[in-house]
Amino acid sequence: MVFAIITHVPHGYQEGQFFAYSPYVREMNIWTKFVDKVILVAPMTKKSATEIDLNYEHKSIDFIAVPEMDLLSTKSILKSMLNTPRIAFSIYKSMKKADHIHLRCPGNIGLIGCFVQLFFPSKTKSAKYAGNWDPKATQPWSYKLQRWILSNAFLTKNMQVLVYGSWPKSSSNIKPFFTASYKELDKKTTVLRNFDTEISFVFAGTFLPSKRPLYAVQLVEALHKEGFNVRIALYGNGKEYQNLRDYIEKNNLEKYVFLKGNQTQQTVKEAYQQSHFVILPSQSEGWPKVIAEGMFWGCFPIASDVSCLGDMLDDGERGLLLQMNLDQDVAQLISILNDQQQYHLKVQKSILWSRKFTLDLFENEIKALLIHEDSSNH
Fold first, then answer.
1. Are 162 and 175 in contact (CB under 8 A)?
2. DSSP of 70-103
3. pTM of the predicted model, to two decimals?
4. Among residues 260, 262, 259, which one has the least CA distance to residue 246?
5. What is the DSSP letter of 36?
6. d(CA 301, CA 310)
7. pLDDT of 38-87, one tens digit each?
């Protein structure tokens, strides 16, 4: 099977291998296990690989480089418009050669792919919509357009669209899905943490305004002012790094707020294993791996009520859903910190839930999807 991947994720090439952001590549290495050849249509970067990148494992990859696209300024919009025909033609050529077309959405390259796939109604296709599928969510128009095309069974033929969460009134080609980080073999007994020593929080992810890492810091700062022995370690980097650093220095938080930068999956895993809470006050999510990973290792999850997070945390039965009001959220946290039995009960529930979603199950689901579609073509 020739498998064409259309994605906006920037890729690099180093020592004879293609690499990109590790959570994405880790998943694509599972998809490509079951195919003979990969055609990869994506932007190419000249940057060297870092701790958060990973190599593709497939031995037969035909890489088709396309320009990056963004719609953040007048100049970039004009540049993207000029590049669109070239990108569309590259995508068309790759789809023509493919037995299976796989779109990564939402993203600007994925948006063009949504239009181009309309010319291949008889080819088997899949799309992984890694964003928030909630129809009520406030989203950019380009995301809404991708959702509309993908869910329109009249326009989009032979397509299975994998989305996070179950949503009412979905079309027949929409398949609720999940993602995973750990294997069955990783399921080790987790010792429940007590509050008799320092209480630790962990935040992991890109430091963007939409992820709201500052809110995580402010929550811990407020708890410290209330007399709790707390600390928070933030793993990642991004546009908000300097703002966070300035805030920490200005408010003298250096003794219990720590910026750890980008780290390997192993380092972050060890942080989950040692922390009491994992926190993600994000404005928008798909399936937040950070929360699922923290739950797997016995971290009590604290997250904003967006996308499928309400389902993941069972409306607060296996975690805490933030109201995004500092006073209210601090009060919720103090209630947990004053009731260790309730904390342990919710942690146990979160471990049981998160450990259903292993890489083994994920691989079996992907294999079933691809093998079924491949056999139906013969």
1. yes
2. --SSHHHHHHHHHHHHHHHHHHHHHHHH-SEEEE
3. 0.88
4. 259
5. S
6. 11
7. 999 999 999 899 888 999 999 999 999 999 987 777 887 888 889 999 99
